[in-house]
Amino acid sequence: MKKLKILVINPGSTSTKVAVFENKVPVIEKSISHSDKELSQFDDLLGQYDFRKGIILQWLNENNVEIRQLDYVIGRGGLIQPVTSGIYQVNDKMIEDLKTSAMKHASSLGAFIAQEIALQIGKEAYIADPIVVDELDDIARVSGHPLYERKSVFHALNHKAIARRHADLMDAECSELRLIVAHLGGGISVGAHRYGKVVDVNQALDGEGPFSPERSGSLPVGDIIRNAFSNQYSKSEMHSNLVGNGGMKAYLGTNDGKEVADRILEGDLQALEVIKAMAYQVSKSIGEMATVLKGKVDAILLTGGMARDEVITNEIIARTNFIAPVHIYPGEDEMLALAENIILMDHGKLKAKEYMG
């Protein structure tokens, strides 16, 4: 069987992850960090495009990778219009929607960079399971006021990949299982997977759910309104309190999970209390999703970087294992997940979808 050579590009807020896979094996890979000083020279996110693309091309050249030898190029999907799960060919409509999106996220650069490199070698570029995958039940969209419909913005790429991995291990298909997946990273998303579709999930980008290392999650709305009109905070400061400087960072001054784990080992009781509170809120969200699935849950899957932290996972297991068996899949593996989508497409198990916007 031919080894597919796949370039995978995953831009993050302070780094760009890049790898060349041969099938599912990363031949070379690197996480390229970007300092605040480097990024502050750009007026906005899209201004970083040439900078990040240049770094990737330089890295490929330094590692003697001839881009014309690539079979596929795929980037992480960004803030396009809501779509169903799957792999999408990058097209002009997608690029236009990424340019004009009201919300901004570094993942949106993935499609731009992938398309530019693919065009250089006469191939198509792809994204897969962007953060706006939307498979919500209609009832899950109702928020409590018609001005504020609930939206699906979550770690779709990792949710879907981990659900597939678990199904494979169980010798089953996702379409046969009812799962609850909790992604525990810089943001936290907890989703109800019913027979392959995520029918309910918290809006993890800025809106709701458990607090995380840098996001405040669901807060008392009345207090937020009073603060917003107190003249003490600007609009950007209010947003920063919710996303970026909220959650664990607001309580402990850091969003570094390893640093907090070390502080707990050193006897820091405040750090322990905050981590347990985070696990408590994740557990409550898992309980909520169990009701979405009407109590019929085959497994609870914990994934993301914080799934390596035994304090967090032990707390969640203790509170939720009465619902279903809890399985831990630490890390994110977003790069592998992107490569796997290409392989499934190449083997005819997935068909690339056309983005219509």
TrEMBL record:
Family affiliation: Belongs to the acetokinase family.
Name used for this protein in its record: Probable butyrate kinase
Assigned EC number: 2.7.2.7
Catalytic reactions on record: butanoate + ATP = butanoyl phosphate + ADP
MF GO annotations: acetate kinase activity; ATP binding; butyrate kinase activity
Entry keyword set: ATP-binding, Cytoplasm, Kinase, Nucleotide-binding, Transferase
Pfam families for the chain: Acetate_kinase
Gene Ontology BP, a term: acetate metabolic process
Subcellular location: Cytoplasm
CDD domains noted in UniProt: ASKHA_NBD_BK (cd24011)
InterPro entries linked: Aliphatic_acid_kin_short-chain (IPR000890), Aliphatic_acid_kinase_CS (IPR023865), ATPase_NBD (IPR043129), Butyrate_kin (IPR011245)
Cellular component, GO annotation: cytoplasm
